[in-house]
Structures are given as structure tokens and as C-alpha cells.
């Protein structure tokens, strides 16, 4: 019975292991670079450049697609004219 009590009692953990805390200096807050106005302006400028470049690429693709469709339409019109001449 004495052995059962010994197993049932909780063990005390060393307090030094539980109280380890990391100390930071209070001179600057964390993330102060990300919160600065200059950084946000620069980030916005990079985003704007990316958006403009992406839109220009999409516009170029659309223009190329339009030109391809125009060429296809012209080819079909030529085929249509040729068929009409053959039927007469």
C-alpha cells in the first residue's frame, strides 16, 4: 500500500525550467520597418509596377488573339468567295 501512495503523489518540477523568459530591448517595436511609411510606399510602388506589367502582358496577348482571329476571318471570307465563284 505504501508503494501505491508513492506512485500517486505528483512530482515537483524545477522552477527554473518553467520561468525562462526572453527579454527584448524596448527601443524599437517589432516590425517597425514594415510599419514605416517609406516601406509601405515602396511596397505599393512595386505592386503597381507588377499590376501594370501584368495588364500589359494580358493586353498584348489579347491583341495577338484579335489579330489571329482577323486573319482567320479573312481566310474564311476568301474561302467563301471562292466557293461562290465555283457555284456560278
TrEMBL record:
Gene3D superfamilies in UniProt: Single helix bin
Coiled coil region boundaries: 52-86
A GO CC annotation given for this chain: mitochondrion
Domain of life according to the entry: Eukaryota
GO molecular function, one term: ATPase inhibitor activity
Region of interest (Disordered), residue spans: 27-49
Compartments in which it is found: Mitochondrion
Keywords on record: Coiled coil, Mitochondrion
Similarity field: Belongs to the ATPase inhibitor family.
Function text: Inhibits the enzyme activity of ATPase.
Name by which UniProt lists this protein: ATPase inhibitor, mitochondrial
Protein's organism: Coprinopsis cinerea (strain Okayama-7 / 130 / ATCC MYA-4618 / FGSC 9003)
Source organism phylogeny: Eukaryota, Fungi, Dikarya, Basidiomycota, Agaricomycotina
Amino acid at each position: 500500500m505504501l508503494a501505491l501512495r508513492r506512485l500517486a503523489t505528483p512530482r515537483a518540477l524545477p522552477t527554473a525550467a518553467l520561468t525562462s523568459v526572453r527579454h527584448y530591448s524596448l527601443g524599437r517595436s517589432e516590425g517597425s520597418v514594415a510599419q514605416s511609411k517609406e516601406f509601405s510606399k515602396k511596397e505599393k510602388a512595386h505592386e503597381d509596377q507588377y499590376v501594370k506589367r501584368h495588364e500589359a502582358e494580358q493586353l498584348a496577348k489579347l491583341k495577338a488573339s484579335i489579330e489571329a482571329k482577323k486573319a482567320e476571318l479573312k481566310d474564311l471570307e476568301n474561302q467563301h468567295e471562292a466557293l461562290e465563284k465555283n457555284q456560278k
